[in-house]
Amino acid sequence: MFKAKRRTVVTLAAVPAALLAGALVVTLTQGNTKASGVSYINGNTNEIVYAEGHRALAPDFTATSLTGTPISLASYRGKVVVLNFWGSWCNPCRSEAPTLAVLDEQYGPKGVSFLGDDVGDTTANALAFTRSAGITYPSVNDAGYSVVQKFGQVVPLNDTPTTVVIDRTGHIAGLVIGAVSYQAMATILRNVVTT
Amino acid sequence: MTDVHTPQSPGAEADAAASFGDKEAGLAGSSGGATGGPPAAEAGSTAGWLRWLWRQLTSMRTALVLLFLLALGSVPGSVLPQQGADPGGVQQYFASHPALAPWLNRLGLFNVFAAPWFAAIYLLLFASLVGCVVPRTFRLAGSARTPPPRAPRYLRRLPHSASYPSALSPDAAVAAAASMLGGRRFRLRRAQAADSGHWVSAEKGYLREAGNLLFHLALLGVLVSIALGGLFGYKADKLLVEGQQFANTPAALDEFHPGRLVSGSDLAPFSLTLNSFSASYYTSGDSRGQPSNFQANVTYTASPGASPATYHIRINDPLPVDSTKVYLIGHGYAPVFQVTTARGQVVYDEATPFIPANTGTLLSDGVVKVSESSPSQLGFMGVFVPTAVSVGGTLESAFPAADNPVVSLIAYSCKLCMNSAVPQSVYQLNTAGMQKLTATPHVLFPGQSWSLPGGNGKITFVGVKQWVSLAITYDPGQVPALVCGILALGGLLLSFLVRRRRVFVRAEPAAGGGSLVTVGGLARTDASGGFEDEFASLAAELLTVDASAAAAPGETKREPNNQSEAGA
Prior knowledge:
By secondary structure, chain A is of the alpha+beta class. Chain A has helices at 2-30, 91-107, 123-133, 146-152, 182-193, and strands at 38-41, 44-50, 62-64, 70-72, 80-86, 112-119, 139-142, 162-166, 172-177.
């Protein structure tokens, strides 16, 4: 009888303890998952810088550009690449386009290549937009999001627009979720252009 | 162990009917019976209060109230439009009930299943169930192992009893009865040397306890399965036009509701192309216009680089990929428009999904936003009519199939009014600050163009495509929950159908030699009846066995045995 009572007490204590532990695990794994080598620009979690040695390899892809030429990421190896995921239907993408055009003009001569990845779009709409926005760098046609899916396996590419900076060795050095700011892009590019 | 003699209390009899039935009694028994009121008697300490609170939480009454609240709480979820399932409906509700809607929103009634009060109910229910089921499981496991009690002294006081004279000695009579009962798979308990008298206790129906145990364990399993689904599962929606492709990644999904521990890279990496969609409708009779079949023909690759496969997704026949399921949940029309500038440059060419405004006739509304047109940006409010008929000058749809498709457009123009950086719905056009190009809507048939006034080029209604709405769900708890649910039902049935019943046999030496055998029977719960008959046939059989044992050769020691017994 004593044994049975002690067992009841143990159970009564174990159940809330297990519940608490479960809640704790959920809270901990949910919140601060910032890995080492990851820093945020001015604390903005949408503007991420990956330190050298903590950079994921960018998945290679080959796709057709909006104007019909094949483009592969591997052919950019040795250059810094700014890869912008966008769509003509997406308002923040439209508003960030002038900033990207300016960055392209400034950093192009410094060996930075700009490449667009046009998602969920039609070629006609996309070309009409790049024409009027003055975007001169190429974009690949990714209407079916397959390039997005590949990059989504290595970086938090959960929304459009997202801009990824790839260093000369083909590793992802930074990421901006949402419309880019000139400041954030300049900060990320400063790290990779000089090295 | 006096409780064996007396019939069970009514409370304990309810045990079979309710899953938590005798838990209150059980807890009361183990902790001094203070279930009823606050722990005034328990020294008023914090521990006492906590214990009382815990007992209240884990009481069946609380569990039932919480279960009822859960059911009540999900009512607004099915009555009011929900943010997750029907965001358009929510906006419509806000528009039509401007005073009431903000209050309902504050109470979380447009997103019931994510509301804090709803979470509070199910978390409390979870705690209550776990707190009830776990201790009870131990109790049941103990009860399933208990041997039968000792035979009561006066078997005639039991609900069922019988007696017969035996030619055998009391010991031999009990042995004969025991072997017969043992053969009937009763669990036996024989009198020990220290016990007085000759008796055997037999009990059957332990499967009832096993069923009860199974029910409770399976119930825990259901809870764990639901938790698994909530942590690791996800739900997503995607609208796809014929010819379009998408990859299962968060950025590509229109709606994405991940479980707490799901990140974007956890999604099954499939991609899917909608080749075609067909809907059939009844063309005659009362159900004219009602759908008879929907079918989405898709090509999919389970992972990048895998070989493509085809599938026909139908209602209730989802596409299974990697334990993820893709359901067909809606469809509609996407008229294809092309807009060219006065100089002939194509600035818009897209199949534009229109949303059905009338689910019966599929009369649909939509907007076309042309941001790159010149000299002005253009916006169109459109109505798509699948089978157009003119009713008193207005267009109506007579049938949901696209038999006579027509679009009716109202054109707007403006300078730079569409350059907001804020994400906007592609299904809505904010006409504030825009000018109507013409006073009346313009009607277009497939292939027709409309030259817009003011040098704004032209819009062509190229043709019609269809779109489907797909729901992508991954619920790792689904199969375990089903298995546990079936097990719980099986366990419950066992505990309902199997009776725990006890039979006692006592033999006293008779005055004239031989012995007098008394048989008593007790069913723990006999709501469905039937034990009376079983007992009668058992008693009759005991008599037969006894008689045949007495008649058997080699049973010669009865005289001296009886003598010694009588002398003892």
